[in-house]
Amino acid sequence: MISFIGGRLVSLLLTTLVASVIVFLLMQVLPGDPAVLMLGMNADADAIAALHRQLGLDQPIWIRYLHWIGGFVVGDFGMSLTYSVPIRELLGPRILVTLPLALLSMAISVAVAIAIGVYAAANRGKAGDTVVMGIAQVGVAIPNFWLALLFILLFALKLAWFPASGFAGWEGGIWNGLHSLILPALALGLPLAAILGRVTRSAVIETLGEDFIRTARAKGLSRSGALWKHAVPNALIPVVTIIGLQFSFLLAGTIIIENVFNLPGIGRLVFQAIAQRDLVTVQTLVTLLAASVITINFLVDLVYGYLDPRLSRGGH
């Protein structure tokens, strides 16, 4: 197990390093001079040269990368060109919006996916299976931003159950903040639930056909008992893998959803930084998002190794 974790940890570090290099290089080849963008097109050449030195843009690209990644590792992400404050100060309050939104969306998607997937598998070929999987197919096809607009029209403007935009904050209590995140989380999590539900159905159906399920039934275990005690736990292995793979799409979806609902999270900050050509902030935020996805996949690998001990014993 130790060698399994060690191998996955080395893979985590190497993948994050490669991702940081790719993001850094992509930011360097984008058109536009950050100093000119900050000072304006009519800025004096001496002022631009001085700002180049201040930002380190006059140094070789490999030195700039080492300086940036060294600061990144210790939490010094540099200064935002737009806001003229440390990027770390911009991240603090926004993480308190994006992280709960992502966790709530994932919790909704997993809960809904297991419920509909197991129900469809238990009623394979029946009307309930057809209806549930038909709805799931529609959910896969619906873009999350369009679903978000529908939710705003129905639940915010017509029924007035939830706010249409903005974030109330956590100062007034947990429910005060969660109330602002429920609609965005549903819009973000339900399309993912449709995908996971179909995977869950297939995995449960495949598991129900295994010999150990027939043995359990032959020993007198009820159909529902065999389903929940044996089939569902064993079917969760491929589902956990898909959850890790889909997490990157969930994080990308926060950029769109946070802008639709005007939430002051990291996704909205990424959008604003791109619009304002704040390349230093974009570079840092994209690398942080990539590192988050890589870390989640690392954790999924550990869970996968726990659910299937053959992997951890084999070390691969």
From TrEMBL:
Annotated localization: Cell membrane
Coiled-coil region: none
Regions that span the bilayer: 12-30, 95-122, 134-157, 178-197, 235-261, 282-307
Membrane topology: Multi-pass membrane protein
One GO CC annotation: plasma membrane
Domain ABC transmembrane type-1, first and last residues per copy: 95-304
UniProtKB keywords: Cell membrane, Membrane, Plasmid, Transmembrane, Transmembrane helix, Transport
Pfam family, one: BPD_transp_1
GO molecular function: dipeptide transmembrane transporter activity
UniProt family annotation: Belongs to the binding-protein-dependent transport system permease family.
Protein name: ABC transporter permease
Organism: Ensifer adhaerens (Sinorhizobium morelense)
Highest classification ranks of the organism: Bacteria, Pseudomonadati, Pseudomonadota, Alphaproteobacteria, Hyphomicrobiales
